[in-house]
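Box 3.1 A note on notation
Throughout this textbook, protein chains are presented in two layers. The first layer is the amino acid sequence; the second is a token string describing backbone geometry. Keep the layers aligned when reading.
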Amino acid sequence: MVEPSRELLAPGEVVDPYVTALAQFDAAADYLDLDESTRQYLRNNRRELLVRLPVRMSDGSISVFWGCRIQHSWARGPSKGGIRYHPSVSLDEVRALAMWMTWKCAVVNIPFGGAKGGVRVDHKKLSQRELESLTRRYAVAITPVIGPNADIPAPDVGTTPQTMAWFMDAYGGTQRRWSPEAVTGKPISVGGTVGREEATGAGIMYVVKEAARRNRLTPSETTVAIQGFGNAGQWSARLLKGLGFQVVAVSDTSGGIHNGHGLDIEAAIAQKLDSGRVTDHKNGDRVTNEELLTLPVDILVPAAFENQITTANASDIKAKIVAEAANGPTTPEADQILNDAGALVIPDVLASAGGVVVSYFEWAQNRSGVYWEKEEVDSRLDQIMTRAYGQVANVAEKEKLTMREAAIVLGIRRVVEATVLRGMRP
């Protein structure tokens, strides 16, 4: 397969995630021999909305926050993607995440396109009332471009089920009706689905389980390190340990803990929830986030942010399998280093798709008014994730591609097919 364009990437640099997303697309487009019109159509977003959000703070002052909503594709259905609250949110980051969401939805074959939203804010410094005011302001600001048949938001970094409940209420007020299907990731009591909280971690668990089976790894003899201990990291750790894997290291922004005999994951989660720092857990040795990535483990799960695996550390990674729970944790050059070393990289567009799959279940339940039991949600998620892994692996084997290349090629093929059948909009 043609390599991603290198003139955009200085060796070893931490790249803009949108540069990575475009490089991945261009490489796949070259491989698929897409004509220039189709390439340009899919390379660009359908809509970009920038908003300024004035919020009255608790001291009576007004603060204005920057936000956006990016919609990359509607070819296979309404666009779908989370809302991120973080000080580092940028337009290019959200553009990349929206594009990855398009391929992610196509890879697992659910009827959505990709979107993403963000507000540049340190949500930890806001009071509960300020956070609610910001969320309602943002919801109203992007209401003209969202809706259950247009674009369905969900939680992401810095947002929670409570955030989605406020968002749904604000959106419903603009429509003057009950609108649970307009947003997913809600609390169960206001239309959410069972299984949504752990969905991303469960998706990781299912693809790691399938990868281990195909590579003849016995869970009880297989060690796992997880960088990032938010929702995805915590649930990945809990569920993988539940299958018998030996989770020996986890980390958050404070650093990490490592115990070669296996961590007490429930105690580590309890410590994280209590103090906000997993490093306060005493059942392990302290390691840095950088050290965690290079521990001698069988499986590495980067579940933090973009650009964690770069040319600076890729050659030191010892894991046989890297399952990307975060979006874009590996730069293109680092990806090549891992592949050359024989590591199996399960790419983000496949590995982290559990969240959007269960969001799809929530949306479908909201629209029908019929709600499923936990066993049905788990069974459907297992089926979709395991099938998607097999389809990507088959493309990789048949066409001599890496798993990332195969996933993006498969996703783009499905989006191209829908685009051609529908015709490009004027």
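Residues 38 and 416 are 8 Å apart (CA to CA). Residues 48-190 form a domain with the Rossmann fold fold (CATH 3.40.50.10860).
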